[in-house]
Write a structure and sequence with these properties.
single chain; 449 residues; alpha+beta; OB fold (Dihydrolipoamide Acetyltransferase, E2P); Chloramphenicol Acetyltransferase; 2 domains; 6-stranded mixed β-sheet; 23% strand; globular
Length: 449
């Protein structure tokens, strides 16, 4: 029997929530086959089995939050345990198919007697020397873990790569051996004891109120993504000192520019929305007011001003709100931003975003598109210090520079900021800079769009 422990599934991740078991007790699992889905504070990850065997017992149930290295299942390996190498890709060469590998990888594989067709390939469909070296290490570990008939030694634990659960062999209990009768043990002298000290009074806790649903009520489990969202919201709202500033933006010129550019964008496979323009305007404003692109390190007593511009773009999914990140938004064109935002949005809705695509943001934007409403006070994506709320664009009568009443397009923008870091004047000036770029999109062109 092997104890299947929750592995290290990401840098800095200390716990995860069990959201789904792919196998049930009694079912066989192949090495590297997905066994369990675990949700961390940033992403849902499929954890594969490092060995081939039968799932004997599920220790951690769906909804349980488990610490790294905590036993979550028991696997039955039978006579021998075969340790697989860490999963590096989901695509492997078909039997008999040619393998794309570097010359160094082929030479090392020949020396080691390793079949390249048995190794997984990387994202470019090839096998490198590092892949073969890992296979050598795994082969050595497998030899150590192999339990021969009649072997009585206990096999040491093997820690795989971060995405593979650690394995510990649990020795079977040895049968009792008959022994000759021993003389009865002397009864130890009684040890005087002192009265136990009174227990310390526990710290007061927040009362928990039991709710009894009535007949006809629907019960939705409060776990998974919904619980993670709730925890993040509470942490942000109870840590950052929120304040919100709102401005009305005349986007008449932007509406015209976008309408003219849609056809050109469509030719390049981009469905052009207003969001790429807003992201680009926000980046320019962050460069002018860098304190909004910052993070407060309370433990270190410092404010860290970020010199990178990774913009989180909130996306609504069936599981709840997710915030995939456009990394290096300052280095992208409007069309590049449109393409990347669309790709990340689809990945978020499909649940295929990687951890890297959900982490590392320095500032966020929340938009509900056509149903953006009149005003909202978005919650900061902690530990960032600011987030913009984008609201609906409406055609309304406005007064132009010559005091004539004309038909134009207005949109409200709201920005929530952490008052511990960003003063009111700085926050207002930041949003006014965003407004300046959106009301005159020619400035985006002059700034290198």
């Amino acid at each position: 029997m092997l104890e299947f422990k929750l592995p290290e599934i990401g840098e800095g991740v200390v716990e995860g929530e069990i959201v789904r078991w792919h196998k049930q007790p009694g079912e066989f699992v192949q090495a590297n086959e997905a066994l369990v889905e675990v949700m961390t504070d940033k992403a849902t990850i499929e954890v594969p089995s490092p060995v081939a065997g039968t799932l004997r017992e599920i220790v951690a149930q769906v909804g349980d939050i488990c610490a790294v290295e905590q036993v979550i299942a028991i696997l039955d390996l039978g006579v021998a345990a075969t340790v697989s190498m860490p999963v590096t890709a989901t695509v492997a060469p078909a039997s008999g198919a040619s393998v794309l590998a570097t010359p160094a990888a082929r030479a090392l594989a020949r020396e080691s007697g390793i079949d390249l067709r048995s190794l997984p390939v990387d994202e470019r469909g090839r096998i490198t020397k590092d892949d073969v070296m890992r296979a050598q290490q795994v082969a050595g570990a497998a030899a150590e873990l192999s339990v021969g008939t009649g072997a009585k030694s206990q096999v040491a634990a093997v820690r795989p790569a971060p995405v593979v659960a650690a394995v510990v062999v649990v020795p079977e209990p040895k049968p009792a051996v008959p022994t000759t009768a021993a003389a009865p043990l002397a009864r130890p002298a009684p040890v005087p004891t002192k009265p136990a000290a009174p227990l310390a009074r526990p710290a007061p806790t927040k009362p928990s109120y039991a709710v009894t649903p009535e007949q006809g009520d629907e019960e939705i489990p409060f776990r998974g993504m919904r619980r993670r969202i709730a925890e993040s919201m509470v942490r942000s709202y109870t840590t950052a000192v929120h304040y919100t500033y709102v401005e009305q933006v005349n986007v008449t010129r932007l509406v015209k520019l976008r309408a003219e550019a849609k056809a050109v964008a469509a030719e390049q496979g981009v469905s052009l929305t207003f969001l790429p323009f807003i992201v680009k305007a926000a980046v320019h404003a962050l460069k002018k007011y860098p304190i909004v692109n910052a993070e407060l390190d309370e433990a270190g007593g410092r404010i860290i001003v970020k010199k990178r511009y990774n913009i989180g773009v909130a996306a609504t999914t069936d599981q709840g709100l997710m915030v995939p990140v456009v990394h290096g938004a300052d280095r992208m064109s409007i069309l590049d931003l449109g393409r990347e935002i669309a790709r990340l949005g689809e990945a978020a809705r499909a649940g295929t975003c990687t951890r890297e695509e959900l982490t590392g943001s320095t500032f966020s934007i929340s938009s509900l598109g056509n149903i953006g409403g009149v005003l909202a006070t978005p919650i900061i994506n902690y530990p960032e210090v600011g987030i913009i709320g984008v609201h609906a664009i409406r055609k309304v009568p406005i007064v132009d520079e010559r005091d004539n009443i004309v038909i134009g397009h207005l949109m409200n923008l709201s920005v929530s900021l952490d008052h511990r870091v960003v003063d009111g004047f700085q926050g207002a000036s930041f949003l006014q800079e965003v407004r300046r770029y959106l009301e005159d999109p020619n400035l985006l062109l002059l700034a290198g769009i």
